[in-house]
Amino acid sequence: MTEFVERLVLKSTFTSDDVDFVSMRRGWVLRQHRLPEGGAFVDGWLTLDGETEIHQVDDVPIGMRYLTVRGPGSTEVAHHIRKDCNLWSTTEALAELSTATTRDDLLPAIYAAALSATDQDAQVVADAFRTVANHPDAEVRQSVLIATAYFPHPALIDLVRELRNSDPAADIRHNAQHLLEALPTTH
Fold it and tell me: Is the per-residue pLDDT at 187 higher than 50?
């Protein structure tokens, strides 16, 4: 099937059990449960007509869960998900990012912003991440690199280049270089 049409980021308060309830209510047919994939676990459903796939990704390495939708009925399914689930919006994630003070509050906001962003959000996300990239906590700066892997927009890739060239931590510079090498045509 084609790449996902949309990624919808679940808030931590909306549990996997809540998603299961939505799937039953909407008549989705479970096809896979907790399939390990790259450090994450994936649940997969098909709509009753078999045309649209819904995946719930429990992305353990970053502590986030999100739904992806693929196929001809994606627009309608995404509409139902927005109606039925408690989701992060890019605007909300950026607002949280602007007020967060602790690592525990910053990291989910960073990841939610990148995971929910569209091309229209790219510049505002890049501007917010530029501020975060100056944070004194190396783990917070590292999260900018990880988030960029999920939303590799050119404005963010430019920021990764800057981190590669000037971050005070050698491991951040090293990881930025690896990310640049992994992304297509970013050198």
Answer: no
